[in-house]
Amino acid sequence: MGILLGVLAVILFSSKAVMIKLAYNYDVDAITMLLLRMLFSFPFYVVIAYLYRNKNNDIKNTKKEYYWVVFLVWLVTI
62: exposed, middle or buried (C-beta count within 10 Å: 0-12, 13-18, 19+)? Predict the structure, then answer.
């Protein structure tokens, strides 16, 4: 299973560049390409979140960790 997932990841990662080159032939700007890329990947993240929603319930996050997350998100957005 691990080898199959590894091969699939290599194929999908390398095909991304081909799809981008094909899309730029249609005069699409970079922001639109980024939006489409995020929209196409969103369902995969939803499925992953659904499958792993009940895993590792014994791990508790502290307020300090949440503050770090908010700070780092803010830092990236400026």
Answer: exposed
Q: What is the pLDDT of residues 34-60, one digit of tens each?
A: 888 888 888 888 888 888 877 766 778
- Give the pTM: 0.49
Closest listed residue to residue 20, CA positions, set 5, 30, 8, 10: 30
Measured CA to CA, the distance from residue 43 to residue 51 in angstroms comes to: 12
CA distance 57 to 54: 6
H/E run at residue 27: none
The percentage of residues in the chain with a pLDDT greater than 70, rounded to a whole number, is 97
Q: Annotate 14-48 with b (16+ C-beta within 10 A) or e (fewer).
A: eeeeeeeeeeeeeeeeeeeeeeeeeeeeeeeeeee
8 A C-beta contact, residue 20 and residue 33: yes
